[in-house]
């Protein structure tokens, strides 16, 4: 019931005209009330050679219903390819949902089951280096889901099973009414241990992570004052080879504190946070400081001021960010400015502006421009994205120019955008491209 196709042309890095073409179609099929499938087919190439591939696919076979008390229950079996079904709900990176840990081209199988206050998720498939691995998480809710107790585990083996790594642990989650406000206080506790054949098992192979969020003091006259706290302790011999974070030596402790204040009538919000990291011997590794002030004015006008810095043994690397936004029934416009590492030789300046204009009820125009300057080398870079969108009944048509992803997350505020502008692969990622896309629902 869903289709999408787009066509891209781009120039080779040599600057010579060498158009490459790409077409993509995505389809959803409701085969039966308890069976659905997804398929993504691509055609790409240039000249007289084109390759046709099934890039993504999934088939879900399930059974669903309600128990005698009206609560939902269900069972699902889902074979998939390159579908990103590896996320099983951890709040920490115990199962990384990317191609560095899983073989997306081969895919895997996922199993889900839930019912009267219980739930479970399991996923298995080959790793990126072709080995067998499995991860799971299962638990039960109590007191109308105000308290959750769960277990989890993961396993990977290699060398025909003669070597392996596994971890297992438990988590406690709570969501309770705060004594000081109508908001809910959320907390969670995770503990895990691991065993790996090539690491001597010691007492230094555990993980501990505790977090409490939205502990608030609330009053109509004085606004809302809230706190978020987190403590993490990762032993040097804890390993989890399904994770990007814990595949190497973690060996650190993290302390995180955040306070926020919502002014009366929620016209402004001030947030200040600090993260401090040290190794198990108590030697400081680094720290992050973040502060943010957001102000909303009448007539849909808002602005944001951000100061943050990263500090390690080499020095302090500050960032100053400012943006403003205005909106009405015809669309919106937003502009942002950022200075990165201003007191170092790595100083860079970024400017971004984007806007959407509703030409009519069916026709809309969107544009985004990002410009950056590396001050020391006077190296300028820019990225432009344009989109014309037309809605016709249950079909949407898009005509686009430029890369969609550069600046798509909060303009210059996002660190990934700032890093991407000076990526070694920048020229390829910022190539000129024209894309036509349509979406249709039946």
What does the model show?
The chain is mainly β and 442 residues long. Helix content is 2%, strand content 62%. The chain is built from two helices and 24 strands. It has helices at 415-420, 426-429; strands at residues 2-7, 21-32, 35-46, 49-66, 72-81, 108-115, 118-126, 132-142, 147-158, 163-177, 184-196, 206-219, 223-234, 252-262, 268-278, 284-297, 301-312, 315-328, 331-340, 348-358, 363-374, 379-392, 395-401, 434-441. It has a 24-stranded antiparallel β-sheet, with no helix packed on it. A hairpin with a 2-residue loop joins strand 2 and strand 3 (35-46). The protein is globular, with a radius of gyration of 25 Å. The chain starts with a strand and ends with a strand. The model is unreliable at 1-12 (pLDDT under 50).
Structural class: mainly beta
Q: Count every helix, treating DSSP H or I runs of 4 or more residues as helices.
A: 2
Rg to the nearest angstrom?
25 Å
Largest sheet report: 24 strands, antiparallel
Outline type: globular
Summarize model confidence as the mean pLDDT.
86
Q: How many strand elements?
A: 24
Residues in helices, as a percent range = under 10%
How big a fraction of the residues is strand? over 45%
Pick out the low-confidence regions.
Answer: 1-12
H/E order of the elements?
EEEEEEEEEEEEEEEEEEEEEEEHHE
- How far apart are the termini? 5 Å
List the helices and strands and how they pair.
Layout: E1 2-7, E2 21-32, E3 35-46, E4 49-66, E5 72-81, E6 108-115, E7 118-126, E8 132-142, E9 147-158, E10 163-177, E11 184-196, E12 206-219, E13 223-234, E14 252-262, E15 268-278, E16 284-297, E17 301-312, E18 315-328, E19 331-340, E20 348-358, E21 363-374, E22 379-392, E23 395-401, H1 415-420, H2 426-429, E24 434-441
């Amino acid at each position: 019931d869903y289709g999408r196709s787009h066509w891209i042309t781009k120039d080779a890095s040599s600057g010579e005209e060498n158009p490459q073409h790409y077409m993509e179609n995505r389809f959803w099929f409701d085969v039966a009330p308890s069976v659905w499938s997804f398929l993504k087919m691509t055609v790409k190439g240039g000249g007289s050679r084109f390759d046709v591939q099934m890039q993504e696919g999934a088939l879900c076979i399930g059974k669903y219903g309600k128990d005698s008390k009206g609560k939902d229950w269900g069972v699902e079996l889902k074979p998939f390819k390159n579908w990103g079904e590896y996320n099983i709900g951890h709040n920490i990176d115990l199962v990384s949902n990317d191609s560095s840990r899983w073989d997306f081209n081969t895919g895997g199988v996922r199993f889900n089951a839930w019912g009267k206050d219980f739930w479970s998720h399991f996923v298995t498939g080959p790793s990126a280096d072709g080995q067998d691995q499995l991860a799971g998480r299962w638990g039960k809710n109590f007191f109308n889901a105000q308290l959750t107790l769960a277990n989890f585990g993961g396993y990977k083996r290699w060398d025909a099973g003669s070597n392996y790594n596994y971890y297992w642990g438990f988590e406690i989650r709570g969501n309770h009414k705060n004594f000081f406000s109508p908001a809910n206080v959320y907390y969670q506790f995770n503990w895990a241990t691991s065993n790996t054949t090539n690491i001597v098992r010691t007492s230094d192979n555990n993980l501990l992570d505790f977090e409490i969020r939205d502990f608030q003091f609330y009053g109509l006259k004085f606004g809302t004052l809230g706190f978020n706290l987190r403590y993490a302790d990762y032993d040097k011999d804890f390993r989890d080879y399904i994770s990007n974070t814990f595949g190497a030596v973690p060996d650190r402790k993290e302390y995180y504190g955040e306070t926020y204040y919502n002014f009366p009538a929620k016209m402004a919000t001030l947030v200040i946070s600090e993260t401090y990291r040290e190794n198990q011997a108590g030697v400081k590794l680094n720290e992050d400081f973040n502060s943010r002030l957001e102000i909303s004015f009448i007539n849909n006008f808002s602005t944001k001021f951000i100061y943050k810095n990263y500090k390690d043994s080499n020095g302090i690397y500050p960032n100053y960010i400012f943006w403003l936004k205005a909106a009405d029934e015809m669309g919106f416009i937003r502009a942002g400015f950022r200075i990165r590492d201003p007191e170092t030789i790595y100083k860079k300046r970024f400017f971004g502006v984007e806007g959407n204009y509703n030409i009519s009820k069916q026709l809309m125009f969107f544009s985004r421009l990002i410009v950056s300057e590396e001050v020391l080398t006077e190296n300028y870079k820019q990225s432009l994205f344009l989109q014309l969108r037309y809605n016709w009944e249950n079909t949407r048509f898009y005509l686009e120019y430029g890369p969609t992803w550069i600046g798509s997350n909060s303009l210059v505020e996002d660190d990934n955008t700032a890093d991407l502008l000076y990526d070694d692969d920048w020229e390829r990622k910022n190539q000129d491209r024209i894309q036509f896309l349509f979406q249709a629902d039946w």
